[in-house]
Amino acid sequence: MENNTASSNLVIRKEFTQVIIQLALIGFLLFMAYKIASPFLGLILWGLVLAVALYPLQRKLVNKIGGREGKSATIIVLTGVLLLGVPAVMLGLSTVEYVENGRAALEAGTISIKPPPESVAGIPLIGEKLSSGWNQLSTDLPGWIEAHKSMVRDALKKGLDVLKSTAGGLLMFSVALVIAGIMMAYAQPGSNSVRNIYSRFAGDAEKGDKLYALSIATIRSVAVGVVGVAFIQAVLLGVGFALADIPAAGLLAIVVLIIGILQLPALVITLPVIGYLWWAGDSTLTNVIFTIYLLIAGMADGFLKPMLLGRGVEAPMPVILIGALGGMVSFGLLGLFLGAVLLALGYVIFMEWVGQNESLEEQPEADTVPDTQTDG
Length: 376
Fold this sequence. Notes:
Helix 12 (317-331) packs across helix 13 (335-362). By secondary structure, the protein is mainly α. The chain has 13 helices and no strands.
């Protein structure tokens, strides 16, 4: 009896040791795989987000060109790179030209700034200081620049940093678009693999398919409801800035796009532009028309977002919006999608768990036969 117990303990120790070694090897492999892939993880995730968002367009194009997945993905990638690259190059050239013209005009002393209106001095708290600085700019611009040399240098440095960051972001986005094209070309095998992963974690194929569909719908909802709305608003305002002859209209449109993605109101740009329009413009009728247009375009997200954000998603729109904003604060722009997906999954799983508890409580109790007593 003691021999059998000892042999059983020996077998258990061997199996336990083998399991520990296997888990350690698996953990080591996962850690090394993460370390190797971590420099490209952001690009891969961006490529995945773009592939999911663009896949409906991929399917439509595939049907039109005879079912060629690779050719369709190549067309989408090349079109996207052109749509990104051409405006970026034009914006860069116009910015360089604008800066060069400004430098030449400053050296020649041909820059003229109108003196401030008398009403500026009457602004509470800051009116006198603002009017004094404005007067100095209008009468002695080189002297003002010399007196505030460090501030001007810091502002130029920050502007250059923003341009560098924008250029780097566009380059990263272009590379992510190429990765998205590769993913779309092999979308069906990848989709099956991800669906199997969801089913494995959920423990049920039907629940896995449901969570998979929710993730896809959430990414597309955020792409359309946040990024899409910001892009539409930036285009509308960019056209208005260009027609109103506002300086650096393209750069202002990019700023509108960025603050729209950050979920800040576009009015922080449109209101100062409207103020500049009335200060520099000559025609009252033209100013009124552009003011109305810019106000409407600046508030377009107020009615576009409720229409597009959360459409076709099981989770409510506030949950998607909170997840997108919280994810962006925690993980940057990519967190806009990750946060929305994770919070939507958590919401649906939690509500399904609550629903299961309620369904158990609502089940009718088994019929019971009451005891009957008879008087004897």
